[in-house]
Amino acid sequence: MTRRAYRGPADVALLQATNARLIQSHSRVGLMHPGDIPHRIFNGLRRDNPYDLVHIWEDDSGDVVAWTLLDPRGAGYDAQVSPVVRGAMPGLEREVDIWSEETLLTIMQERGSEARAIETEAFSIDTVRTALLEHSGWIAQPAERMMLTRRSLDDVPDPALPSGYKVRTVRGVEEAGPVSELHSAGFGSSWTPQLYRRVMESPGYDKDRELLIEAPDGSLAGFCVTWPDETNRTGLFEPVAVHPDHRRRRLGGALMRAGMRLMRESGMEWAEVMYEVDNPGSEALYRAEGFVPLWEVLRYRKPVRLDTR
Q1: This prediction's pTM
Q2: pLDDT tens for residues 138-182?
Q3: What is the DSSP track for 194-213?
Q4: Residue 212 in contact with residue 168, Cβ under 8 Å?
């Protein structure tokens, strides 16, 4: 068993193929959708270097048995462990968690982080992982749950839009500026054209899978990014948002329908989206579009004390 750092774009494809294969042979529980992997690496870590923050465990045959993604700015990490090796190597998951936690804290301390807690996630029905975390001092946050939902793509209604609005794909990196402004407005985040161009040029991103809603005046009113899992024929929405100036016009539903039709055209049979349970707007939107709750994902937090002197 060896651990190594991320080596470049080929590792994105490797991790995606690993998760797709494990989802196919076991289930989605405890595993990221393959599309969420480049999203979390290049969107979530947009200001950082993945070569420092993504690490992979391989067995003697070179097969991936676990990997972790550290997020020092977000004070958290995501650990993925193969269900295949859980029984044969029960100590591996604990090893991955200990290494991830210790390395994350070291990086945070070096950067002068003022965080007082770190975070990770677990599916609520994944009793092996939830027990491991709780035994190690992690505390579930009942008010910060997420819900994974799914729907069939057999019957997708027309994406009805208000007069003058239209759905189109991103044209290319030349739109990094307006698209970054839209992402910032949609989530109250801080994107720059340079940061979003970096995402658009990263492994896994395809401009033809990012849909935009254009308003009658040519401004951008909403967006969604769709990600395919060809192995399991399941598409993922991540992320989805409407500009505050254009909300309450049912643009979110139209955007989802256009995205689902795009997924179906590319061979997907199912669509998934995850939302925060305490966000009633998201829940209402996804339920109205036929998404059914599948599994709950818990956020775990552990208090820490960093010496940043």
Answers
A1: 0.96
A2: 999 999 999 999 999 999 999 999 999 999 999 999 999 999 999
A3: HHHHHHHTSTT--GGGEEEE
A4: yes
SS (H, E, C) 220-249: EEEEEEEEEECCCCEEEEEEEEECHHHCCC
How, if at all, do strands 270-276 and 234-242 pair? parallel
The answer for 73, left when phi > 0, alpha when psi is -120 to 50, beta otherwise, is alpha
What would the 3-class secondary structure string for 84-138 be?
A: HHHHHCCCHHHHHHHHHHHHHHHHHHHCCCCCCEEEEEEECCCHHHHHHHHHCCC
**239 preceded by cis ω (within 30°)?**
yes
Read off the pLDDT of residues 200-257 as tens digits, 9 standing for 90 and up: 999 999 999 999 999 999 999 999 999 999 999 999 999 999 999 999 999 999 999 9
Count of CB atoms within 10 A of residue 128's CB?
A: 15
Task: With beta carbons less than 8 A apart as the criterion, state whether 140 and 120 touch.
Answer: no
Residue carrying the six token digits 């490797």: 14
Burial class (CB in 10 A: 0-12, 13-18, 19+), 258: buried
Q: How many CB atoms within 10 Å of residue 42? A: 21
Tell me the residue length of the chain. 309
Give 241's Cβ-side CA count (13 Å radius). Answer: 17
